[in-house]
């Protein structure tokens, strides 16, 4: 049976095809329903319009609920600890991650090139430290997830570009935003920070191997302003200057120790440390090695710094980085 569709119906159908929002789609579908001739021959078409209406409504609702909260990024912890790269736009954060790890973040001579967190693993001696490259800290990027990620990290490397004329004002802007979002760098219990000054690069953005003009002076000013709060290190991703020193600084920042275990009469495997918080006692370490051990532990012997070889120690003994433990139950 021919449907005998009216020009009004055909017009509404065209508007449905051209609609770009769910609201426009729904309006057009309602119009189609109102103008479609109601007889047996259009029964299927009317059922189809109702189905499409339901679909548009559920899809719009789904979009609304998922669109209500802003995007949230989280990076699962890996390795000996998690640190983040923070700083003003175009400071050299991404390039620093590339210099420290095998990660391949986007590096670009313009600001706001990093949009989402990008993690890499930084090798230091026999451990790997997770380092997350982040979008710059600026009013345009100041989203709650960014600051949550910084707060949750074990440490932060604040990067400033020593070749930049507005290094101090961009640094101040970064620090003000961090403060506004309740991120405290350093101080008791909070992540402390290392100020990495990216080495100077030509004002054209071309990678030069020498310090850019004025870099030394800017470094002096940075030191004057911030050295009492954080260690400051001038590094160059370009020449590799102080990149290894930065790895050591990253490890220090974690405030952890590496402890090894061995069985009686055997050698310890020094390639696989237990990474523990500084201040960990023999008792705490035993609990990490094996749950049951902690209860049955009688004493331990230690080979390491601060003790003589194989010294017998009690449960309360505080461990040092590099200690080898022989646990006796
Ligand atoms: N010569 C030299 N150039 C560098 C160094 N670090 C970064 N650059 C250059 O500086 C520009 C910006 O570097 P990025 O690492 O993308 O900067 P970013 O801080 O990640 O920038 P956003 O993600 O936009 O905040 C690029 O052209 C890099 O090649 C460095 O140590 N030496
Ligand atoms: Mg970047």
From TrEMBL:
<feature type="domain" description="TGS">
    <location>
        <begin position="255"/>
        <end position="329"/>
    </location>
</feature>
<dbReference type="GO" id="GO:0003924">
    <property type="term" value="F:GTPase activity"/>
</dbReference>
<dbReference type="InterPro" id="IPR004095">
    <property type="entry name" value="TGS"/>
</dbReference>
<dbReference type="GO" id="GO:0005525">
    <property type="term" value="F:GTP binding"/>
</dbReference>
<feature type="compositionally biased region" description="Gly residues">
    <location>
        <begin position="188"/>
        <end position="205"/>
    </location>
</feature>
<dbReference type="InterPro" id="IPR012675">
    <property type="entry name" value="Beta-grasp_dom_sf"/>
</dbReference>
<dbReference type="InterPro" id="IPR045001">
    <property type="entry name" value="DRG"/>
</dbReference>
<dbReference type="InterPro" id="IPR012676">
    <property type="entry name" value="TGS-like"/>
</dbReference>
<dbReference type="InterPro" id="IPR006073">
    <property type="entry name" value="GTP-bd"/>
</dbReference>
<feature type="region of interest" description="Disordered">
    <location>
        <begin position="188"/>
        <end position="214"/>
    </location>
</feature>
<protein>
    <submittedName>
        <fullName>TGS domain-containing protein</fullName>
    </submittedName>
</protein>
<dbReference type="InterPro" id="IPR027417">
    <property type="entry name" value="P-loop_NTPase"/>
</dbReference>
<dbReference type="Pfam" id="PF02824">
    <property type="entry name" value="TGS"/>
</dbReference>
<dbReference type="Pfam" id="PF01926">
    <property type="entry name" value="MMR_HSR1"/>
</dbReference>
């Amino acid at each position: 049976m021919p449907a005998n569709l009216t020009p009004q119906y055909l017009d509404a159908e065209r508007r449905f095809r051209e609609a770009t929002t769910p609201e426009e789609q729904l309006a057009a579908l309602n119009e189609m329903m109102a103008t479609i001739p109601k007889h047996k021959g259009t029964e299927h078409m009317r059922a189809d319009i109702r189905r499409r209406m339901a679909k548009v409504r559920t899809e719009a609702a789904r979009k609304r609920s998922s669109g209500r909260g802003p995007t949230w990024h989280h990076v699962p912890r890996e390795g000996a600890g998690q640190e983040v790269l923070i700083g003003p736009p175009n400071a050299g954060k991404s390039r620093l991650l590339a210099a420290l790890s095998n990660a391949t973040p986007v590096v670009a001579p313009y600001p706001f090139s990093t949009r989402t967190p990008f993690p890499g693993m930084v090798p230091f001696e026999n451990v790997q430290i997770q380092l997350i490259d982040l979008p710059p800290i600026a009013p345009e990027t100041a989203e709650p997830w960014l600051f949550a990620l910084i707060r949750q990290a074990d440490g932060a490397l604040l990067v400033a570009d020593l070749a930049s004329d507005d290094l101090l004002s961009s640094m101040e802007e970064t620090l003000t935003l961090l403060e506004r979002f309740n991120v405290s760098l350093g101080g008791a219990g909070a992540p402390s920070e290392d100020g990495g000054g990216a080495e100077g690069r030509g004002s054209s953005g071309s990678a030069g191997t020498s310090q850019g003009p004025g870099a030394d002076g800017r470094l002096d000013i940075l030191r004057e302003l911030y050295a009492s709060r954080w260690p400051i290190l001038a590094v160059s991703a370009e020449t590799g200057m102080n990149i290894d020193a930065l790895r050591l600084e990253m490890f220090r920042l974690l405030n952890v120790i590496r402890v090894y275990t061995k069985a009686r009469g055997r050698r310890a495997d020094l390639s696989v440390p237990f990474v523990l918080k500084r201040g960990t006692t023999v008792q705490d370490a035993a609990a990490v090695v094996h749950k049951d051990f902690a209860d049955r532990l009688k004493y331990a012997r230690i080979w390491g710094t601060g003790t003589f070889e194989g010294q017998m120690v009690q449960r309360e003994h505080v461990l040092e980085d590099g200690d080898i433990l022989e646990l006796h139950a």
